[in-house]
């Protein structure tokens, strides 16, 4: 991997992926996104991993797709490159993913953070969809996920003016989970990931799938889907262990089976 650093056991059962193009503010070129897709697939298949953190560095989570790589492209080049099949595969990761964001999370960077399941940010984080300023618009989910997260009025403003949103504002409008001082954002993400990693990995996967389904379906279908996944939990050893541990007043030991 040239543009990301992967640590499968950064903490017990928690993997870390760090974007590593610091000079370019972690601009997301095609190779980086391909590496991200491959790393997530590997971590998803690794039974020791129960939660994944994606981070950048203090100055930038990611300042967007690589503008220099896109600048000369035609519509048909973009169609043939088909970068969004990579993003679709990232979206299909079954394990919970937390974005640990500091500095710029712009364009594709903001979209990558929103593709994750939760976002922990430093006080210096800035979220934005500034594509309009370079004559385009969001293409990796920005108009959809941002609108669902913060509502139409704020999303329209960000997408149509390219205005950045501070971490405090992003927290206020429900885009992110929490804001902490810059020296603590990664630690806070590890804390959150560590909590998730203590739960049943089977239940976590099914729960993530069910929450995400709410974006794609009506309430009746969503409730039906949830119910099936709830029943499926009862096929797991983790369900037996979790409930027995409660009755026996001890901590459960989940195995992901
Ligand atoms: C390529 C980028 C980049 C990007 C920054 N750099 N963002 N290179 N693509 N998205 C490079 C700069 O060219 C520069 O390299 C170096 O990183 C440092 O950036 P500066 O601009 O010198 O830093 P600063 O003055 O602090 O400004 C930071 C910034 C600005 C506000 C984040 O860099 C900026 O506006 N970047 C573009 C943000 C953007 O428009 N993102 C959306 C992209 S489109 P050199 O070598 O010149 O010193 C997009 C579409 C997604 O994301 C669709 C699907 C994937």
UniProtKB/TrEMBL annotation:
PROSITE patterns xrefs: ENOYL_COA_HYDRATASE
Keyword ATP-binding included in the entry's annotation: no
Matches recorded under SUPFAM superfamilies: ClpP/crotonase
Keywords: Lyase
CDD domains: crotonase-like
Endpoints of the signal sequence: none
Superkingdom to which the source organism belongs: Bacteria
InterPro entries membership: ClpP/crotonase-like_dom_sf, Enoyl-CoA_hyd/isom_CS, Enoyl-CoA_hydra/iso, Enoyl-CoA_hydra_C
Family matches, as PANTHER family: ENOYL-COA HYDRATASE, MITOCHONDRIAL, ENOYL-COA HYDRATASE-RELATED
Family from the record: Belongs to the enoyl-CoA hydratase/isomerase family.
Protein name, UniProt field: Enoyl-CoA hydratase echA8
Species of origin: Pontibacter amylolyticus
Lineage: Bacteria, Pseudomonadati, Bacteroidota, Cytophagia, Cytophagales
């Amino acid at each position: 991997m040239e543009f990301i650093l992967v640590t499968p056991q950064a903490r017990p059962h928690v993997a870390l992926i760090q974007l590593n193009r610091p000079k370019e503010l972690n601009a997301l070129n095609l190779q980086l996104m391909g590496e991200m897709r491959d790393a997530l697939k590997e971590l998803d298949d690794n039974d020791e991993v129960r939660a994944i953190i994606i981070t950048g560095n203090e100055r930038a989570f990611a300042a967007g797709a690589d503008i220099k790589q896109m600048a000369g492209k035609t519509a048909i080049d973009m169609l043939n490159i088909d970068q969004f099949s990579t993003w679709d595969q990232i979206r299909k990761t079954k394990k919970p993913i937390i974005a640990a964001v500091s500095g710029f999370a712009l364009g594709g960077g903001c979209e990558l953070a929103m593709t994750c399941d939760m976002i922990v940010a430093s006080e210096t984080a800035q979220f934005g969809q500034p594509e309009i300023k370079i004559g385009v618009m969001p293409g990796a989910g920005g108009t959809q996920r941002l609108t669902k997260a913060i509502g139409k009025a704020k999303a329209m403003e960000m997408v149509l003016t390219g205005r950045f949103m501070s971490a405090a504002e992003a927290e206020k409008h429900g885009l992110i989970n929490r804001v902490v001082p810059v020296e603590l954002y990664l630690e806070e993400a590890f804390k959150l990931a560590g909590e998730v990693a203590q739960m049943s990995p089977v239940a976590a996967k099914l729960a993530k799938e069910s929450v995400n389904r709410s974006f794609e379906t009506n309430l009746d279908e969503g409730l039906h889907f949830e119910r099936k996944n709830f029943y499926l939990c009862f096929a797991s050893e983790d369900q037996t262990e979790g409930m027995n541990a409660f009755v026996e007043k001890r901590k459960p030991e989940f195995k992901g089976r």
